[in-house]
Amino acid sequence: MSGTTTAAVRPRRRAAGAGATNRWVVLVVLCVSLLLVALDATVLHVAVPAVTEDLRPGAIELLWIVDIYPLVCASLLILFGTLGDRVGRRRILLLGYALFGVASAVAALAQTAETLILARALLGVGGAMIMPATLSILRQVFPDRRERALAIGIWSAVAAVGAAVGPLLGGFLLEHFWWGAVFLVNIPLMLVSLPVGRMLLPESRGERDGPWDVVGALTAAVGLFGVVLGVKRLGGGEPVASPFTLVPLLVGAALLVFFVRRQGRRPHPLVDLRMFRRPAFSTSVGCIVLAMLALVGLELIAAQYLQLVLGLSPLETGLRLLPLTIAAMAAGLAGARMLRRFGPRRMVCFGFCLTAAAVVTLTAMGGTDNARLLLFGFVALGFGLETTLFGAYESMLSEAPAEQAGGAAAIGETSYQLGAGIGIALLGSVMNAAYAPGLASVPGVPSRESAAAGHSLGEAYEVAGRIGGPVGDALRRAARDSFVHGLHVTLLVSAGLLLLGAVMALRLPRVMQCGEESAQRRAGVELPAPREAAQPRVSA
Questions:
Q1: What's domain 25-201's architecture?
Q2: pLDDT of 524 higher than 60
Q3: Total-model pTM
Q4: Is the domain covering 271-512 a CATH 3.30.70.360 domain?
């Protein structure tokens, strides 16, 4: 099998080389694809009040409107990533474009909450088609690792821009149009991307030996859906013992175990799990999970701190968080040079340590505004996080065989989503555990009101407003002080997770391995020979 795979590398290389003159144009098309998916993940957040007022959804319907897109997208990444390896990555990407455009139109014109939920689910399906395809096509178009590292840096910088611009774009559109405009903005971009992508993007496939494992793909999709749903419910404050939380988690975990065992027995697995035996691949995936686990919940907590403790408006909050995005963009653009100079191990370790230092610095935040501290902390946080994710993503994608680029990209994106969901649940639980006790014994506040105030800072302010007078003021001060205390504890826990990631990153290669011989050897399905025989040329 190894010889067959190595032989198959040459035609793909020639196909990539034929389009070498316009590979940077291809990168632009792929980045536009990613920008749309990243925008749609956050653009709806600011439109939730307008959607609530117009469609009158119930509490559960509103939750599904917000969560169904990332939930469906995360659960289908492996399915469509591996399907693209079989039937063609460009084909899956173009189908994703078309579905994304149609679903955007349905969402914009939705007259009921049920229609909007269905449209958001279809957007998730389109996003799952687009995300792994962009990375796997990028892997094929840029066979040289040094150029690919630069391309991944630009790709990741665009992802940071999309996540940050989403709320700002949504707010601008809501000021001038109705809430459906946040979806209509996707349609003209898709109308341009579809024909341009068809003309410019090269088609590529992986191995086509044996049938595609339909049962395995569906098992992975349902299993991931259950796990991500359970994790999201935990992140929303639902009790672990709740059947609506516990059942999805258990069923999803059982299906994923079945999926892993099934892939190990099949002669032509959907995902070659032997990739995880390679230290660089498994370590990179673990670093992605840990980075998101430690940090994604901090964004939500930081937004609450800026608005509820410091009293900033949503627009002012977005502007305060903007330096984090700019720093992440800078790290993405500088990542290729850093990777060549320092190598994956030192780069990812440095990113984790810098992010941990930024998190510890932010523990100096208190009840009063300190703009300089926040600016320094957010800049270091953004640069460190993007440095970590860039090094991990690049190492993971370069370590995977070229014919399984779609599956590897799907594993990376799934790890990102799972890490984010688990991080919200874990850090949210830490925050609540540190916050609630401070409100249990405020003088003059009845126990029922104290329990309600212990749910969140926003609810504590509502209870304080209802009580009024000196007792209400005391409850408000106690809630604010308890929130700041909980924030400090959560930051320290996050810093510990980040330092754990720095230790994990010591398993990554010391140098960035380049060269044609190395690329062909890594393209083989069989594991590499012992390390002494597998050393490629090293780029300074």
A1: Up-down Bundle (1.20)
A2: no
A3: 0.75
A4: no
